[in-house]
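CORE FACILITY INTAKE
Project code: CF-77B
Contact: R.S. (postdoc)
Sample description: multi-component assembly, two entities in total
Requested service: structural model of the whole complex
Turnaround: standard
Below are the sequence entries exactly as provided by the requester. Do not edit them.
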Amino acid sequence: MFTDNISDAVKNGGEVESVATRNGFGDGLLEAGTRDANVVALCCDLTESTKTHLFANEFPERFVQIGVAEQNLASVGSGMAAMGKIPFITSYAMFSPGRNWEQIRTTIAYNNANVKIVGSHAGVSVGPDGATHQAIEDMAIMRAIPNMVVIAPADVHEAHKVTLAAAKYDGPVYFRLGRSGTPVVTTEETPFEIGKAQLMFTRDESLEKSVGIVSTGSLLYNSLMAAHELQTQGIGASVLHMATIKPLDTEALTAFAAEHDVIVTVEEHQINGGLGSAVAEFLSETNPTKMARIGIHDQFGQSGEPEELIAHYGMDVPSIVAAAKKLIQN
Amino acid sequence: MQYLSSDQITTLEKQANEIRQSIIEMLTEAGSGHTAGPLGMADVFTLLYFALLKHDPKNPDWADRDRLILSNGHICPVLYATMAHAGYFPVEELLTLRKFGSRLQGHPHRESLPGLENSSGPLGSGLSQAVGMAIADRMDNPYTSKFVYCLTGDGELQEGQIWEAAMLAGKEKLHNLIVIVDRNGFQIDGYTQDVMPMEPLAEKWESFGFDVQEVDGHSMRALNDAIGKAQAVYSQPSVIIAHTIGGKGVDVFERDFRWHGNPPGKGPEDRVPKSEQAKVALEKLRTLAGTIDKDNHA
């Protein structure tokens, strides 16, 4: 059943609103800037797309328009952090951290600079723009860097909380956002803490077999619907939402794996290097568990509507259900 | 502008010479590292750390200090040697360069050594960091008299990121930013004009909105005058193209790009055999046989 972290609309099967996570960031950044005068924002000619304009309009003296120059974006952010600012550097995830990975590694992470890297338009749900603009490797390349925190918020409420938490956290943080509407599944009260997983759906313990679904980012809603469907088909299912994939909440993951027969990870990202890899790496060393990884299988995206693409790449509800059933039946 | 007396210049030249000797000793002990750039920039570093920078070696985190950003991290032996002679850490520690556990990493790591403002090595990122610092400082105080100095190589200017940063510095009219380019004319693979022509370099900077000066990078007086003028420019960022001689001070190393990436003992042998390179270099420096500028005192 749904835990208290989930909104009534989802619990009651009512109409679920869809809002882009970038909106939660835009509001969150404005709030963070109001709370702390050291918060500054930098953007590469994508101010409205990334929703950084809400901050820029309110605090023009604390906003730097970098132009189309993402390498400069990362290192200027590092320099500002060295002077005590809390820079949020924003662009599309494909360009930052996509294009400027080395600048992020050397001038932000190696310096342990207090810079927040915000990658909007992550995942194939970017839609019609096509593969060049669909970042599906961003978590992998960020997760590989020491000192870096990596977060994928599930919905607009969580994106808001992630932004405020990142502003308070002392050190480099990367988080990704989506362009398209993401079902609003949590509430303003749902807790968020960097590095802490949240249980979102608990299995019916009377059912003999059980699947543990570990989700991150935009696919929490599909994971919940898949868990619900599995239970109607007689298979116990739970959902653990892992918004922070680095540092991984290994305590929660250990307990979760112990309580379920198999684990399915769900992410709008390559299955290599992201959440699926992080979970597999940890469990294979501590509690080897049969797993299936839902995500993109070593392919590029393409143009299309978000729902078409999510279905095509096997991240929709039927695909998650099918993968879970196949895993538990073999 | 700060006036330098003839006596002060003599003292600075002696300090630069001692720093050059330390560079030879530390590179020889390390057995790897870059020689030409550090020797070529010893005069610039000496003038900055011993005469111009607002800084306090005993309080490296002093908030009101000027910031010195080394963008071409591979010339860090000159930075480390100058910092040690200025009192940031014991001169003896220079011999730990590039060794396991040392605070003097092969390329600078800010988190390792107090007084370092940035980590560098991958080229082209230092100017962006300096621009970020200058913007942030001006946000806090539009009339700031704190300066951010960014030292770059010339081969390094082939990195696109340099020009991204230059564009932003020009747009923001960062009067508190002073860039000093080590224009020694060569890089690992050869002369910059062969590898990737940089000229007309002054015009490039000018077109990005910089006040540009070209000076003899070994003349304390010329450098001091240029930096003083750069400090006085209020409406634009400044760049000083310092014409230097790679390997300066050891005549048998000078102007030879093969000394870019080799330490004494591993350099080209046509003028000095490997086994003699460190000894000869130190002798040249101690006897001032190297062609140190003698016209400074006029």
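Facility notes:
- The domain at 6-286 of chain B is CATH 3.40.50.970 (Rossmann fold).
- The radius of gyration of chain B is 18 Å.
Invoice: internal transfer
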